Amino acid sequence: VQLQASGGGLVQAGGSLRLSCVFSGRPFGNYAMAWFRQAPGKEREFVAETSWSGGRTYYADSVKGRFTISRDNAKNTVYLQMDSLKPEDTAVYYCAADSDYDPRRKSYEYDYWGQGTQVTVSS
User: Fold this and answer.
1) Which of 7, 24, 101, 115 could anchor a disulfide with 19, C-beta 3.0 to 4.6 Å?
2) CA distance 122 to 109
3) Which DSSP category does 14 fall into?
């Protein structure tokens, strides 16, 4: 399995970015997909997760109402639409996959990880 994340960049506070993560190697629809982020000097933290069909989603309190996770199973891709960005959203963002939908699990319990994409929000 491979996960390829993209879409990061530099944006001003209040702006928007959309991250993408392309999944390959197994049937995409069999996997719940999640986004995590890690800021310098901090632990990796959960951002959002979506179930196999996209019918269920779950967000960290810090991004609820500003970020939207979605997926297109025809394109084997999960997205993270990030609006009203804040400087504290600056981090490397990672996508992850697991055969079970469980947004409360620990990060090390996910089956697969992609490489990160850097998001920098300037004030």
Assistant:
1) 7
2) 33
3) T
